[in-house]
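Hi,

Apologies if this is the wrong queue. I'm a grad student, and the batch job for AcrR family transcriptional regulator from Martelella mangrovi produced an output file that my downstream script rejects. I'm not sure whether the problem is my script or the file. Here is the sequence I used:
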Amino acid sequence: MGFATSKSRFCRRDEPKRHALRRMGRHAAGEDPAKRQQILEGARQVFMNVGFDAASMNDITRAAGVSKGTIYVYFENKGELFQTIILEAKQVIFEDLRATLNAEGPVEDILKRFSIRLASGMTCEETVKAMRIAIGVAERFPELVRSFFGDHPDNLVDTVSDFVAERTRLGELRAEDPRLAAIQLLELSTGHLWKRRLFGLMEAPPSEAELVEMADNAVALFLSGYAARA
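Support response: The file is valid. Your script probably expects a header line. Output copied below for reference.
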């Protein structure tokens, strides 16, 4: 798979990962992972098509092919549905990015792969739609925005900070404040492209060539400040 082809869960159309809560025999109410995923996929389709406010539980039941009562066994309301979709999408993106950072190789190559995959996931069509939905309901449902942009146990800043700190310990980078360095790398890797996508100034996701160019420039600038000196 090329660097620029790694997509977020929103962008993928393959079978998503499932964390099964299986018991012997029949599943207890609310514990069938296939049914839960069926509901989430139906809700995702509705939210992406009409937005959060216009989405109704009736719409979601039709899209998911289940009864409204079944949905309420798994989720309290559509706010919880949307928040779950956001958090699970983030988890898939972060798993891929953590794996990229944990790979062997020169720091520059690892950071370029990371930058491309991050920008690719953040600028795909459905991720951008989800960000717009979250921003649109921010005042009424701040927890939804925190799910997307705020602190979380799987916070990407912490993951990149750990990478920078370890590579500094090994003498490959030099960062007195690994967290600040991590934030700067994330901004360099995504800021221009995803903000243009978010505000409708860029109608389609960036091409692979655009992602590579952004990554090359971002990493070169980052290393100009943080690469270890000979």
